[in-house]
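dumping the sequnces here before i forget
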Amino acid sequence: MNELKIVGKSINKIDAKDKVDGSAIYPQDIYLENMAFGVTIRSTRPHAFIKVDTKEAGKIDGVLKVFTYKDVPGKNHHGVVLKDHEVFASKKVRRIGDPIAFIVAETKEIAEYAKNFIKVEYEDIPAVFDPEEAMKEDSPKVHDRDNVFYHFKIRRGDVEKAFKECHVIVENVYKVPMVDHAFLQPEAGVAFLDEDGRVVVIASTQYPHFDQEEIAESLGVNKEMVRVLTPAVGGAFGGREDITVQIHLAIAALTLKRPVKTVYSREESFLAHSKRHAMKMYYKTGALKDGTLLALEAKIIGDSGAYASWAMNVLRKSAVHATGPYYIPNVKVDSFAVYTNNPFTGAMRGFGATQVPIAYEQQMDILAEKLGLTPIEIRLKNCFREGSETATGQVLEGFVPLERCIEELKSF
Amino acid sequence: MILKKIEVNINGRDYCLDVEENLRLIDLLRDKLKLTGTKEGCGEGECGACTVIMGGKIVNSCLVLAFQADKSRIITIEGIEEDDVIKNSFIEEGAVQCGFCTPGMVLAAKSLLDKNLNPTEEEIREAISGNLCRCTGYNKIVSAVKKAAKLKRGGDGE
Ligand code: FES
Ligand code: FES
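..and the predicted 3d for all of it:
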């Protein structure tokens, strides 16, 4: 066998040296000749029609231009799956934090000062913050459509019949809140035109190739006219999968033909990027006397906030993982992604697989208690092994070392 | 804007500067002197990414005004020598992930080891308690500081 140079060895991270030296470049560390600075105006209301007046701000000495939806040369939208975000809110805002305008000035100080002269008139409309409320027919609509925009089903066996055969049934509702990634480096970026007239955007992002497409679409140019460079990224954890600074900077640099930079504060960072989905999980789990799981019925409602982001993928994953690593022959799962006027939710470490263990593992403990079993016994009885079939019909082949893992826990 | 004249030694070099009264030390370092190894994670004294050593003590440079640094000696990450054992220990122990907290962590560790070459784990955790890391989970950072302490004492770091 050829000897492997890297695999199986502990090697030093390739960029660790630059990072300990402080010479690794994050977007906020970039200073270019003749660089202007941009700040974003965001909505302060969760659901409102808006009228924006930028005239006064535009007149301030040193302000180069105030960009709004009218200045988007291409499509005023973006979004990783559904194009439901606006680059700048045009008629209404759907959450606190929606971008409304981007002021570009000679200096950061001038841009910040000009913020005070942007007039946003809000006409509040009824908002909805509870996804279950939002599922009702007569609830306020966040977009021009039903708030439920995704429903995933798993059907296996016959749960109704199976519950009748169960010795014990445990029924509970579990709730988990939104979580912010709070990566340490707040969003920042720089955009400029290169010698060939292409727009170059430097930003800490998880998806330069998606960003390129979304920027090009909003600029109304071919993808080839847009370059996205990713310098050092100061943490992301899923929170840099959606557009934040990229399109605003690209439009400003293309229009002004000057390098433009923006750096978010920590507070703005919280407003700008996605959160982990808050979920409400209805669980009904039934087992035989010896602890063998027989049936699961679950309803999982994910709060997508004002935009879809990755909600379909996240709620699908929650459903797929709803049984936990346990074999259950009869399963009925319904998961929903629902628009509300809350902060939008998207990818965050685990992508929907992180929330459901709160429910299914507590169900296991409660079942064990009711049956007079230990938490370990009930898990050993039901855990996936090689050849087990999951609720979606996947046969687990190869290496499934869960049983060994649980056995190890016995000594604690 | 009122300007103040300050004299300050940064990383061994003397500067005589005119600074705006409301200029923060972090902006002086980053925007004016381009010492961008000092990071801004929160701007309000929570995260420690902006840590520098001023007069032998670590400070959050986002909470210090530039004129307050008058007549002081400041060490930023750029002032740490090339083959420093703390930096090397961070690399070898895998204590660096995204790296945004790293300059501040290294300086907080230096400030501890400058005074105490035999810190307990608790003392290490206390010394970096003003520095947030969202990536590594701290354990590797703590082992890096332990290793550096041992190497500085003349051990082999294992
Ligand atoms: S930036 Fe100074 S403590 Fe966070
Ligand atoms: S390595 Fe990313 S915050 Fe510490």
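Residues A 184, 235; B 96-101, 133-136 surround FE2/S2 (inorganic) cluster (ligand 2) (CB under 6 Å).
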